[in-house]
Structures are given as C-alpha cells and as structure tokens.
Amino acid sequence: MTLIPSKNIYSPVSMILLACVMLINSTYVYAKTDLSAREIVELVDESRRQTTDSAFTRIKLTTCKYGTSKGKLKCAKKARIKLIESAQINTGEGDKDVKSVAIILEPANERGIGMLSFSYDESDRDNETWIYLSALGKVKRMSTSTNDDEDTESASLFGSEITIEDQETGKLNDYSYEILDEGKFRGREVVIIESTPKPHRLKKTRYGKTRTWIDLERFITLKMQMFDKNNKPIKRLDVGKIEKINNTWMARSLTFMNLVTQRLTNMKIEAINFNINIEPAFLTQRALTDQAFREKYLINLREQAK
After folding, report:
1. Global pTM?
2. Coil, helix or strand for 243?
3. Is 30's pLDDT higher than 60?
4. What is the fold of 13-305?
C-alpha cells in the first residue's frame, strides 16, 4: 500500500493522542520561566491542540511483548502491526471539544474496525467513545464508568497498550499538580510535574498519579510515568522523534510501555495533512457502520491530502 506523502507531520493527540498530558493544577511558580505549573500545562495543551484541527493522518501501531538485548529495548515476540487512518476536528463547541474517527486499514482481517470519539473539556461531561466490530456488525459504546472493568476508560485502543484514557485531551481542572523537580533530560531543560486526580476524577481513572517531563523551550512532553492507586508504576511513555511543523513542536513517535504485562505499543505517524475539509457528517456512527458512506469520505480526504 502506498502511503500518502506528508506535507505536515504532527502527533495526533485526539486519537491518539495522545493524551500525553495527564497534568493538573498548582500555585507553584517555576523560577526560570516565571510560569506556574498550571500555565506550563496550559501551554503544552494549547500546543497539542494546534495539531488536531482539521487533520487527516495515517498511523502505524506496533505492539509486542518486549525484552532487552545488550541494554536495548526490543520486541521479544513477533509484533502485531496495524495501519490506521484518522480524521479529527476541533468543533468549536463547548470550550475546545474534539471529534475524531479512526479506521483500521491493515491487517486485512481487521479492516473496517473503527472507533468514534468525542472529547469534552468540561469536567462534568464524560468523553464518549464508540467502537465498531465488523465481525459482529454492531457498534458498542465504551463506558467511562468504573463499575464494569471491561468497559472503563482503560479499555484498549485496537488491542494496543494505549488506552482510551491515555488519549484524553483537556479536563485540566480534573487534577491537582505540582512541580517536583527541574534540570536536564536528553540535553533539554525540563520540569517534572506530578499530577494527582481530584476525588471526582479518581473514580473514573486507573491512575493514582502521573509524572511528566516537559521541555521548557518547546512545551512538549518528553516522558511520562503512570502509577496505580497504590503508588506502583504501571506504565511509561517515551516520546521519540520531534519536529517543528507550522511553528509547532510535534512528536512523530510515541512508545507506551505496560510495565505489568511487559508489552509495548509504538505509535508512529506515517503521514499527516492539516487544514483538511472534514465534513461533520463523517464524524458520526454512520462512518463506522456504512462502508460505502465511509469510503466516499475517505477517498475525498485522501485526494485532499495529495
């Protein structure tokens, strides 16, 4: 399959995106920048949002059991690879709400499986996600309730080690946070922010806290550690190749490591185009269930991306 050449490449954080920010709130002031922790978080969030407006992207998800060889991380077993197309827009509704559709292209036996996501900034409004299982021919609503362990926000994204919760955007008021440290990381000036969910959020998350390494010049996440509610580290995010596109710093490779299952998923941005005309009608459940309808819109998006 020929990939669409990329004119602009970014990290799609609505789908994927990557919700790289599980950050929160504090009155702590960072001495070098004169910015509070909240202000730093807002700058990171705003930078991410610039990459999610009217964007059409192709993403490769590589998932495997991992191990180390000569000190280097590698897949210990054959990796499962999925190629996905995703379209997303900032709707302008609410504060900065995002709608996205993601469809599996490969492997062939999973082609047509899709996910529709609506992300809301408001703390009192749960995000909504639906997945279409082509083998069953039905759409399933993925609940944000923790009453059913099988249907929580920790549900997997297309069988990867990336969860729906990991993709979440906004909702900065759902957390409290503080700056733990500052210094150098990978040669960059960074600040480490520890994030703790507020009581109402704690009921909906699998994470008891997160720690995020933020590049203070580019305001992008470089690394994240996730802990469970017993303070045990359970997941890690490492951000790979970073590029400046359209005056915005963006990650092209993100690796999520599940420290419990010893599995990882690498998300690689294969191709991306901004300022694509995405019809609101496409970002509906019909795009999941109606193949002819879906292909009509995807063909148009591919043409725009050339």
Report:
1. 0.84
2. strand
3. no
4. outer membrane lipoprotein receptor (LolB), chain A (2.50.20)
